[in-house]
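Incident log, structure service

09:12 report received: a user says their structure output differs between two submissions of the same chain.
09:20 pulled the input from the user's history:
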Amino acid sequence: MGEDEAVEHVVLESSKYARGRNEMMQVVLSELGNARVEMTGREWMVLLLGLCGDTNDRMIEAVKEFLERMWRARSQLRPHR
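09:34 re-ran on a clean worker, output below:
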């Protein structure tokens, strides 16, 4: 992650991970009943990280898969030292 990249940007906004993010968000929104779509970045992060009572196991698994795929993609792009 570059020094100027915030975790929130990488998880919620970075175009590099849009496909994986869209897959994750489909699960999350489905679990929420597609009712909550207007949240701040901070509110999304609280939900996605399981820091509120609205997060369930299916959502946590979708977030975990997204983060694992994102990390693998990032690791492949970085030169090995």
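09:41 both user submissions now match this output. Likely a transient worker issue. Closing.
09:42 reviewer note: The chain has a mean pLDDT of 87. The radius of gyration is 13 Å.
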